[in-house]
Amino acid sequence: MSSPAGDPTSGPADGSPGCSSDPLTPAARALADSIAAAFGDLGPNTDIAAQRRRTSRPPDPRRRPASVTDRTIPGPAPGSRLRVRVYRSAGTPATDAPALLFFHGGGWVLCSLDTHDGLCRELTHLTGALVVSVDYRLAPEHPAPAAVEDAYAALRWATSHLREEEGGDPRRIAVAGDSAGGNLAAAVCLLAAERGCPLPVAQFLAYPVLDARLATESMRTYGDGRFFLTAAHMRWYWGHYLAGAAPTPHTAPCLASDEALRLMPPAYVLTAECDPLRDEGDAFAARLTTVRHRTAPGVFHGFLDFFPQLPQAREALDDAAVWLRDRLAARR
């Protein structure tokens, strides 16, 4: 659910729709085919350690200049610690800075702080926010609810200690994530409402994973292997994450009640036209009270990673950043 190392940085520059038989733009098609070839199949015999190495990527300091610091914060269990990476841009205030908690994608099994380092650098540059990327525990070593409890622990720390430890404003915290990270961002908002933690002021969900049933029309249309992410991939991810447990609203937020969703903070839901997860994101957005919903045409799951190459990614990221800046500007 995140692209492997060795992604092409060139190829067709045309961001216009492709030929009538292919809904991807030429540039998106070249990227999707390259990623799929490098990513490989996921199944019972997959060597997870090898797959993690295949999808790894070192931090990219060539992105927008930013201050980047690794540190730990309290985890969900007494004495436990979570690693986070804190980003500041030149425009991030030294005190009372708005903050964005970011949860990376990767199907709760793959990826890391490093794979999403470039995206986090861009987010802090575009929003001026203090971005805190959370290194939550991965399945299958740590199945659900480990990841969501780690994500909630990060929110709890931010609301209680962000000001004195990082100069952040606890009244202006948003959450964000891509794919499985979007799932965690939504789940954290549900948990905060249930447990009495101050709610984030906003949530940015980029092509989020929300429904374990895999029964949507977009899953059938785009999950056959032509568009990078497949239905088989999703079964593999969900299998490792749930480890035989039934999905709940905390693991599959589409199961949340309408009453629970009415308590959610304003959301920006970004979906991709040629993504198996598109319809579950669309359906979730339709149930939210205050939402901006954008579907990027001619692109595939994970396309935001390619904001230097794909105009649709650049436009979507810029639009989401403007929306986040507006939501983070007002103090509660």
UniProtKB/TrEMBL annotation:
The active site is at 179. Gene3D superfamilies: alpha/beta hydrolase. InterPro entries: AB_hydrolase_3, AB_hydrolase_fold, GDXG_lipolytic_enzyme, Lipase_GDXG_HIS_AS, Lipase_GDXG_put_SER_AS. The keyword Hydrolase applies. Keywords: Hydrolase. Residues 100-304 form the Alpha/beta hydrolase fold-3 domain. GO terms for molecular function: hydrolase activity. Residues 1-27, 40-81 are annotated as: Disordered. Belongs to the 'GDXG' lipolytic enzyme family. This is Alpha/beta hydrolase. It comes from Streptomyces albus.
